[in-house]
Amino acid sequence: MVNALHRNAKSNLTREQVGAVLAAALHGPQVNTYMVPGDFGPRGSWTVDQAALRNLIDTQFRDSRDPRQQVITVLNTGAPTGSARRLAERLRTLGYQNVQVANGESRQDVTTLSGDGAPALSRELGFGQVLAEGGPLTIRLGSDALQ
Fold this sequence. Notes:
Blueprint: H1 2-8, H2 15-27, E1 38-40, E2 46-48, H3 50-60, E3 71-76, H4 83-93, E4 98-103, E5 112-114, H5 118-125, E6 129-132, E7 137-141
Parallel strand pairs: 3-4, 3-7, 5-6
Antiparallel strand pairs: 1-2, 5-7
Helix pairs in contact: 1-2
């Protein structure tokens, strides 16, 4: 196939380069297509099913490494009352959609973050000590938390 293409196509590519392009085309990235979910409306136009579209986007186009797509649990473990709720509101304004708030059982002085995406979230917030990556994303607000 490389010979046939090289003989019958005008290009400044060498035979090796043509082979490399064909190999990349055969084994390169795959393109997936999706139909926007919905049905035909009263005038024959497509009416989008918004809930199904959100589900399609979440399942097919979600970057699992993006902390904005994960569930974030904010635990108050020593911060002033209301700090976890205020941080959750701040996270939502930054685009984090799944934020839960609770009170932690043990008291700690230092705010810590753990879970997938903890380093990126710590950099974005500008505070917190990263303990570990992997697992659910959790913020434990210590007494050092900003109000």
